[in-house]
Amino acid sequence: xxxxxxxxxxxxxxxxxxxxxxxxxxxxxxxxxxxxxxxxxxxxxxxxxxxxxxxxxxxxxxxxxxxxxxxxxxxxxxxxxxxxxxxxxxxxxxxxxxxxxxxxxxxxxxxxxxxxxxxxxxxxxxxxxxxxx
Length: 133
What we know:
Blueprint: E1 2-5, H1 7-15, H2 20-26, H3 28-31, E2 34-38, H4 39-52, H5 57-64, E3 67-70, H6 87-96, E4 99-101, H7 105-108, E5 122-124, H8 126-132
Parallel strand pairs: 1-2, 1-4, 2-3, 4-5
């Protein structure tokens, strides 16, 4: 299964090695999971870690090798209600993954668990995904 990790999931995995996001990443090989992200998401995670938890940057660097990094796909449509800042995440996830994992309930919340509204892309939190796994 191909999972696209939003910046906040990457940030959390690097910042909290005992949390759900880090646990999910540790399952990759055993569970047949492929982790995908974008340069846009990685840069946001790195910027936020640099500002809020610089000691966790080494954890991010160690994780990056486990991710396939994809570009933005600016020609792909997005749901109208999605803010501009989240559109590169949605487009990259839609083009490359089965599931978009995010903790951004404010912006992605109305689209979560509603693949009929996202052209087949399932959007979930890490906790929701782990519960279904």
